[in-house]
Design brief:
The chain has helices spanning 7-14, 18-26, 33-46, 62-68, 89-102, 114-119, 142-149, 179-190, 206-221, 244-256, 270-282, 300-304, 316-332, and strands at 74-79, 106-111, 131-137, 155-158, 171-175, 196-199, 264-267, 292-294, 311-314, 340-343, 345-348. By secondary structure, the protein is α/β, with parallel strands linked by helices. The strands form 3 sheets. It has a 6-stranded parallel β-sheet, with helices on one face. A 3-stranded parallel β-sheet has the order 6-7-8.
Length: 355
């Protein structure tokens, strides 16, 4: 008995008529394009011997069909910035990539340029037909994130734009942004410090927003007055033009408008705290003599700056493992309910808060 695949075999596999399969394979008659593609794909999968690739060379999506018949093994990392060794993601990605290699996936890093963000276009090097999943770092443009979440590809955001409306079809991974800040505020209250400010653009990303909420809730819990003048949270510039010098100028102006310093500034991350130290020095103030200071991330710079910076440590390798678990479970089971996961963080007290 012959093992040759027939048109009837393909029809039976798809649950459609032999006549429809014949029309699709021979490009005759009128049938839905989606049906034609389904038949072509099944013919490739079943090894239909009379199916000549040349016969389908006129179809624009033939290469896509061939690609779909092969196991997708590429994970694409999208980022809008450069991820240097000071970024918490560098250690996380090292662990994430190790997990990838054990599952025979490769990682491709693609930077999304400002003009691609504004025009909602995928980078030219992005290949949807080889991509098994997407992981996003420093992708905080809401419209762009909605666009890529509709590609019908498993996607994981590590941090995100501020999620105040319009649900997005993806999983999210965050560092825990609340307990360390509230623990620090409790310590300050115990020491009699009651004038506390916050520095950082609260709408920059979800984590900054949550850190600001943790600060406000910490004040509320301890019945401490909120001082608007000590909160520098509204620095907004053209993203394509934003520079460190523009932010330093913003801090200069904010500090110039103060008639006194608070007891403590809590900064949305370590690099903002380092800028604050720089501006305070120019103005003749010292940390911690004139004001206490806390950052977030536990960057390498936080350990070597003078004075060493109190900060909140992100367990990057744990995040790497969790990222792999979230993304690969989504690849395996695309219909899972969407999830949001937080990994623990740890307050580290150093000399910038007199420890």
């Amino acid at each position: 008995m012959s093992n040759r695949v027939t048109i009837q075999d393909i029809a039976d596999a798809l649950g459609i008529s032999r006549n429809t399969v014949s029309k699709a394979l021979n490009n005759t008659g009128v049938i839905a394009e989606a049906t034609r593609e389904k038949v072509m794909q099944k013919a490739i999968e079943m090894g239909y011997k009379q199916f000549s690739i040349a016969e389908f060379s006129n179809f624009n999506n033939f290469n896509a069909l061939v690609s779909n018949s092969i196991k997708k093994s590429e994970i694409i990392l999208l980022t809008s910035t450069f991820l240097n060794n000071s970024h918490f993601a560098s250690l996380m990605l090292d662990k994430f990539q190790r997990e990838l290699s054990q599952l025979n996936y490769t990682l491709t890093i693609i930077r999304v340029l400002p003009e691609e963000l504004s025009s909602l276009k995928l980078p030219s090097s992005f290949n949807k037909h080889t991509c098994a999943g997407i992981i996003c770092f420093e992708m905080f443009d809401k419209d762009y994130n909605h666009m890529i979440s509709n590609l019908n590809i498993p996607i994981l955001f590590v941090d995100s734009h501020v999620l105040t409306s319009n649900p997005i079809n993806s999983d999210f991974l965050y560092m825990e942004n609340t307990s360390g800040i509230q623990q620090l505020i409790s310590e300050m209250v115990h020491r009699g410090k009651r004038k506390i400010g916050f520095i950082g653009e609260i709408n920059h990303c979800q984590s900054f927003y949550e850190r600001y909420l943790a600060f406000r809730n910490g004040l509320l819990f301890h019945n401490i007055e909120y001082y608007d003048k000590f909160c520098f949270t509204n620095h907004k510039v053209d993203k394509s033009l934003q520079t460190q010098s523009s932010y330093l100028e913003y801090l200069h102006n904010c500090l110039d408008n103060l008639d006194e310093l608070p007891d403590l500034f809590i900064c949305a991350n370590d690099f903002i705290a380092l800028d604050v130290i720089s501006v305070l020095k120019i103005k003749g103030y010292k940390v911690p003599d004139d004001v206490l200071l806390c950052g977030f991330d536990n960057s390498p710079e936080s350990k070597i700056i003078s004075p060493p910076l109190t900060t909140i440590h992100i367990h990057s390798q744990i995040m790497g493992v969790c990222a792999a678990e979230l993304l690969f479970s989504r690849i395996k089971e695309p219909t899972l309910n969407y999830r949001k996961m937080y990994t623990e963080t740890t307050l580290i007290l150093r000399e910038s808060t007199n420890h």
